[in-house]
Amino acid sequence: MGINKFTEQQLEKDLRRTMEITSPDWKMQNNYYDKTSNFIYRMNSLDECLSEIQRTKVNKDYALHRWYNYITSTRCEYIFCEYGAVHDSDKFNHDIDIYIDGIPFDVKLTLYPAKLSSRPYDLSTRKGKDDMIRWYYSHQSQENRKQILNRLYVVCDADTYKECLLMKCNFSLMHKHIKDFMNSVKVHGLNEIIISDNGKEYHLKSDIIHIH
What we know:
Low-confidence stretches: none
Number of helices: 8
Strand content: 15-25%
Number of domains: 1
Radius of gyration: 18 Å
Distance between the termini: 24 Å
Mean pLDDT: 92
Helix content: 40-55%
Number of strands: 6
Shape: globular
Structural class: alpha/beta
Largest sheet: 6 strands, mixed
């Protein structure tokens, strides 16, 4: 998904329009809806998505929410690649998205957690980021905790839930913060952290890119 600036701007317009025509109520994952809306992985524009939704009669909001999350997450991964990362050759690999200096990473584009609305972690400090990283690992689903991987959390942080969602498609802002992160890695290297889980210690590379 290496695209030029014009295409990126067009994609951002499509994604913003997607937010305008969908319900603000994002439904929980549903296996049936997932199966019937898997076409979203082949869609490169909102118009393509809408045509396929009309043809298949699937739940419009669910399909467009999935498409929004898929496109923004994929674009985020490739922005890392514009500043020196390498994308994994297998796009269906759920554990590895990119490599930085040969080290594999799972990239999570996510919203600032509502459970942390009291702002217990200062993300302007290394300690604050590390503490929040540990919080993320400890609050994964049990299924995901079976594999504790190197992760980069790209955290969208705005005043409201809707603004956080829109921030996921603010690619110019994402470029700025990811570029700064990758430049920092060149100077200081990747952040190392020890994660404890079920009596075991895992030595990982992990960090937070705070989009705000």
